[in-house]
Design brief:
Elements: E1 4-7, E2 14-15, H1 17-30, H2 48-54, H3 62-73, E3 82-83, H4 87-97, E4 100-108, H5 109-118, E5 127-131, H6 140-151, E6 158-162, H7 165-173, E7 177-181, H8 188-194, E8 198-200, H9 206-213
Helix pairs in contact: 1-3, 2-3, 6-7, 7-8
Length: 216
């Protein structure tokens, strides 16, 4: 039986924190707002609109903030990134085991696809799902519902892997099992409280975790 694995991108496949934070600071500086503090890992994962709103940007200026963020991100921010050690090998193992691999990220699909291409990860994925530039499909529950419809897989034949509560909540709302990865930007407590079916703390455990929750 064919089974599909949906992967988050930032904090799951790649360490995107440095680029994301630099681009948020770029936008905040341009708009004369205070830059991020030391404890800023929470900005990696959520929708940009929600992040900037939480940082104090007025509703009417959110689009401006997002556009400024992308002004830097699309040129260099997406390159201030690195693939977690062991990820390519784990993706290869999962393919050999017979799983179908898909990206499922809140990041705009144009940026996400560029990142996969730049880091030579595109070859592992049969599908790539991300948000639109207007922010639609950035909610993981909506995104995964869309992904299931497009790929044609039943929820009981799917699994979501991610590092934040949004990934786990999105999976649960679609009756999909989930693996929370604590090596990313979400804490073990965050993932556990969101209801992850299994937690792992290093990329080398991915294939084993997948096979445990969704064996072929």
């Amino acid at each position: 039986m064919r089974r599909i694995i949906y992967f988050d991108l930032d904090g799951t496949l790649t360490d995107a924190g440095p680029g994301i934070k630099a681009c948020i600071n770029y936008a905040l500086d341009k708009m004369n707002f205070e830059k991020l503090g030391v404890d800023s890992d929470w900005v990696v994962g959520p929708s940009l609109w929600g992040t900037f709103k939480k940082l104090g940007i007025p509703e009417e200026n959110l689009d401006e903030a997002v556009n400024l963020y992308r002004e830097r991100y699309n040129v260099k921010g997406y390159l201030e990134n690195s693939v977690y050690v062991g990820i390519p090998g784990q993706l290869a193992v999962l393919l050999e085991m017979g799983y179908v691999l898909s990206l499922a990220t809140s990041k705009p699909i144009v940026s996400a696809s560029a990142i996969l291409e730049y880091f030579d990860l595109t070859k592992y994925f049969s599908y790539e799902f991300g948000s639109n530039l207007d922010g639609s499909l950035s909610d993981k529950s909506v995104l995964l519902k869309h992904a299931l419809a497009v790929t044609g897989f039943e929820p009981n034949n799917a699994l979501m892997i991610g590092d934040r509560q949004y990934d786990i909540i999105g999976a649960k709302s679609n009756l999909i099992k989930s693996v929370g990865v604590s090596y990313g930007y979400g804490s073990t407590n965050e993932l556990r409280e969101a209801g992850a079916d299994l937690l792992i703390d290093k990329p080398a455990e991915l294939a084993k975790a997948v096979h445990k929750l969704l064996p072929i």
